[in-house]
Amino acid sequence: MSSMEEFTFFLGLQVKQKKDGIFISQDKYVVEILKKFGLSKGKLASTLIDAEKPLLKDSDGEDVDVHTYRSMIGSLMYLTSSRPDIMFAVYACVRFQVTLKVSHLNAVKRIFRYLKGKPYLGLWYLKDSPFDLVAYSDSENMVMEIVVLNILSDALPITTNGIQLTMSNLQERVDSP
């Protein structure tokens, strides 16, 4: 059985196909996690991190529920697949999963308040833009650069049947110092 309709959801991502590109977002997921953690109401945050209160180890603060904190962090980590704007703040909070305090929970809640004010942001991929994939890995003082070049614009054709990825005309270069 096959479906030839334009898809709107893929692995939890909302996909909006337009003539000039594709928009990928998770605004429904944002609403869902705000509701899940009881943060649908209340004030908004215009920034992800409070510049006046740096996120540091807090040995004097009050302990909080580890399971709730980790669940919130996990939800935010999943959201980073379509929201790179929150990635730095989320991973700053990830560092405190073992010795977390109220100050760390407040930092995570601030990220949720930011999301509440900007739930519709996502990734926009233009149809005619060049697609050069660059990835870096830094492991034990060894940096490896992987550059994927010469993917033709027709390598990612947008059709009403979804996305068809062909790996023709692919050249790979791996450098390590």
What report would you give on this structure?
The chain has 177 residues and is of the alpha+beta class. The chain has two domains: 25-117, no CATH class; 130-177, no CATH class. The protein is 27% helix and 24% strand. The protein contains four helices and nine strands, in the order E-E-E-H-H-H-H-E-E-E-E-E-E. It has helices at 27-36, 66-79, 87-94, 102-117, and strands at 9-10, 13-18, 21-25, 122-126, 133-139, 142-149, 158-159, 162-163, 171-175. The chain has a four-stranded antiparallel sheet. A three-stranded antiparallel sheet has the order 5-6-9, with no helix packed on it. A hairpin with a 2-residue loop joins strand 7 (158-159) and strand 8. Helix 2 (66-79) packs antiparallel against helix 3 (87-94). The longest helix has 16 residues, at 102-117. The chain is elongated, with a radius of gyration of 20 Å. Mean pLDDT is 75; it is low at 137-177.
Question: Tags for this entry?
Answer:
177 residues, alpha+beta, 2 domains, 4-stranded antiparallel beta sheet, 3-stranded antiparallel beta sheet
Give the helices and strands, then pairings.
Blueprint: E1 9-10, E2 13-18, E3 21-25, H1 27-36, H2 66-79, H3 87-94, H4 102-117, E4 122-126, E5 133-139, E6 142-149, E7 158-159, E8 162-163, E9 171-175
Antiparallel strand pairs: 1-2, 2-3, 3-4, 5-6, 6-9, 7-8
Major sheet: arrangement of strands = 1-2-3-4
What is the tally of helical segments?
4
Helical content class: 25-40%
Structural class: alpha+beta
Short description, anyone?
The protein has 177 residues and is of the alpha+beta class.
